[in-house]
């Protein structure tokens, strides 16, 4: 598998220039920008709780730069324009030093012009479509080459899938990811007529026609697989309809990119056993560092609470932020950004996460099979894969790289040897 442009893969050496001394104001304010109501609350509330735990644990260690940390929580309520308003409130009114937040790409893109205007800093913890590298965002979730492409390869190589149903929620992440996957599948020899693409709104509940169409795709006897970029509580109806239609993982396997332990905790998983998810972390990862994290989480949030991939991304991002602030001796955004490149912290699955000059991480790719208890049996795991901001499978992106450390550009054209633009494509 082609995972990353080699020019970036080799650029991970950690070196800090001498940084000026700054007077640090206390407390250090950690902005938490996650939906606590609306369709995305099923996924994002846990990330708010994760940040509260991390702040509490850091304060128990003595804080940071001699200061206590203070979590400032806001609720953008699954309302994408409200994410921008709440980000502005956090930076301009609350004067937070950093923001941890967003889930959907449309919410992240709503925030981008605000944090770039005000020179804020945000850690974004969820898998996304790539095709972006903001100076003001560190992407601690997976890029397509760390989730979507490896999952598709698993369908092709391990399960012998010949026809693909790409089902997504109707917003930028599923649409862009599926554009990448359509191009990739055609490169792999899958005919256009063997690729079925469908989008539904957030909160969609009537899945009977779509599931029927997916079943009909395999009428000629060819193996069908579903790649799901369905987000939020719409997943509940989708999986219920699959079960009602008698579709098992043996018949039509589903690999989901936005369904983890938290989403499954609210479902009867009896009929979902064998379906798959692709992430960079599962609670079932058998490592000492993960066992310690799970124990801390359950003590903080309750024995019934589960862990999941975006939580690990927040853990990694938070730990990197702490190390960068300590190295910089300040929470000044520009100084912290420079200190971030090359920083390493442990993954909860084993191995090491390294922050690359393109503001993405090295991450292992895991395929998990749903079990009756709502956990995942890890059936495939790679070594750490460097995240690629710009995909190799769209012609306009294949010539682009991101390198904020040496080139000072997130959208550098390797053919013209010029920086296309500094600000993001909102």
How are the SSEs placed, and which strands pair?
Elements lengths: L5 H4 L18 E6 L7 H20 L8 E6 L5 H14 L4 E4 L3 H14 L3 E3 L12 E3 L8 H10 L5 E7 L2 H16 L7 E6 L7 H10 L6 E6 L4 H11 L9 E3 L4 H4 L11 E4 L8 H14 L7 H20 L4 H8 L3 E3 L5 E3 L7 E2 L2 E5 L5 E6 L3 E2 L8 H4 L1 E4 L5 E5 L4 E2 L7
Parallel strand pairs: 1-2, 1-3, 3-4, 4-5, 6-7, 6-8, 8-9, 9-10
Antiparallel strand pairs: 10-14, 11-12, 13-16, 14-15, 17-18, 18-19
Helix pairs in contact: 2-11, 3-4, 11-12
The helix/strand class is alpha/beta
- What is the arithmetic mean of pLDDT? 92
Rg over CA atoms, rounded to whole Å, is 21 Å
| Bulk shape | globular
Low-pLDDT residue spans: 1-21
Give the spatial strand order of the biggest sheet: 7-6-8-9-10-14-15
Count helical runs.
13
State the share of residues found in helices, binned by percent: 25-40%
Major sheet size, sense and barrel closure: 7 strands, mixed
In brief:
This protein has helices spanning 6-9, 41-60, 80-93, 105-118, 148-157, 172-187, 208-217, 234-244, 261-264, 288-301, 309-328, 333-340, 395-398, and strands spanning 28-33, 69-74, 98-101, 122-124, 137-139, 163-169, 195-200, 224-229, 254-256, 276-279, 344-346, 352-354, 362-363, 366-370, 376-381, 385-386, 400-403, 409-413, 418-419.
